Amino acid sequence: MTRRGVLWVAFALVHVLVAVLGFVFPNQPMGDVYLVYEPWSTAALEGRGIVGITETWVYPQLALVPMILAHGFAWIAGYEVGWAILVTLCDALAFAMLVGRGRARGRVAAAWFWLAFIVLLGPVGMYRLDGITVPLALAGCLWLVGRPWLGSVLLAVATWIKVWPAALLLAALISVRRRWAVVGGALAVSVLTLAAVLAAGGARHAFGFVADQAERGLQVEAPVSAVYLWRAVFGIPGSYVYYDQDILTFQVMGPGMQVVSSAMNPLLALAVAVIAALGAYKAWRGANFVRLFPALALALVLAFILVNKVGSPQYMTWIIAPLAVGLVIDRRRWWRPAALGLVMAGLTQVVYPLTYGYLLGGDALPAAVLTLRNALIAVLLVWAATRVVRAPGRAVLPRVQALPERSADAVGT
Fold first, then answer.
1. If DSSP codes are grouped into helix, strand and coil, which group holds residue 162?
2. Listing from the earlier edge strand, what are the strands of the sheet with 249-253?
3. DSSP for residue 51
């Protein structure tokens, strides 16, 4: 069997395994699918209101599209299976683009990395909206140089499903020479989306997802919640974990929590601005896409995770695209951060869903695992930021294979 054939067999086995684990593992790893995605999309199909149009929603408006598309496969074995099939099909398209003819070692390494990450993170990576945005983001990143307009369109569509790919768009705007193509693609998607929202009568709720996120408390898994989580573990009065009925997630409470929560959004904006300014300076000094984009994209995405009052386990999927692109370009430099990313994915699955009930009950072991995972996020962010700082000013390709396979029009110069 060819190398490409082995990869596709592994792809099928990995997706079947993770899909099944969603039905087996504790703590409802696919709960969002049947608790919120299915009711929201069913209501829209039946004319009982459209989230993001007739009411404020936690997600951008295009997030409803994959929720509705999953109904097209629900006849097979229910909505949950339909969702898993939709995610697998999206992954397959991006995987085919990534692997190409299966001859480039960097692409093969990136493909194996992605499959390993899916297994180590577990079903939460599949049974969340992030499972749709990851293949869009990866394909968009790979197309940024050869077809920057199309790459920008894919990243913009992903952003209007879940906000996090905006970090990749920002990195692209800084790193790609044909910046107007990046701006044009993102602007076209945004204008069309907003035009559809306004035409449907949703002007009041067009950006409701921004305000909704700003009003959230501190989610238990967020790095900033560590102090309150450990206070709850040690039984210190005034600190505890509770369930927010409006956001449908577990959050922490403790002294000064409201102040910390209010400060997180400005701090996140500041962190992103500092990293973006650093990347812009390196681009101005002549750093090329190959050396600058993967590290800058990874640093921005990690800032989105680390300096965030929401820390859902599926957020770990955000690092897949920049790490995979790094492996495609220069696997010798990027295998260590990629390996660290795999460790972070495995630790995340240990916390959720495997020991999540114990975490909420104040058990020290899952709290320690979560704290370690969050510390590794900071370590990887420091590594990525250092790579941005060290990006050479001259446009020099690494000696390892960095040029794309022609069939994919991927990264390269």
1. coil
2. 218-219, 249-253, 240-244
3. B
Distance from C-alpha of 198 to C-alpha of 381, rounded to nearest angstrom: 39
Best CA proximity match to 158, nearest among 267, 244, 59: 59
Length of the chain: 413
Tokens 């695992």 found at: 369
CA distance 67 to 59: 12
Joined together, the tokens standing for residue 256 give 């000064």
Per the prediction, the chain carries an average pLDDT of: 92
* Residues sharing a CB contact under 8 Å with residue 255, sequence separation 6 or more, in sequence order: 238, 239
Structure tokens that stand for 73 in this block: 């496969």
Give the tokens for residue 227: 């102090």
User: Is position 254 within any domain?
Assistant: yes
Alpha-carbon distance of 217 to 325, in angstroms, equals 34
Max Cα distance, the chain (Å):
62
pLDDT digits (tens, 9 = 90+) for 355-405: 999 999 999 999 999 999 999 999 999 999 999 999 987 644 444 333 344
Would 239 be classed as within a structural domain?
yes
Residue span of the structural domain in which 175 resides: 3-389
Residue type at 212?
D
Q: What are residue 361's DSSP bridge partners?
A: none
Q: What is the pTM of this model?
A: 0.93
**209, 57 Cβ separation under 8 angstroms:** yes
The number of distinct structural domains making up the chain is 1
DSSP character for 132?
H
DSSP letter assigned to residue 246:
T
For residue 39, the SS3 value is helix
Residue 405 lies in a domain: no
- Residue-wise pLDDT for 41-78, tens only, equals 999 999 999 999 999 899 999 999 999 999 999 999 99
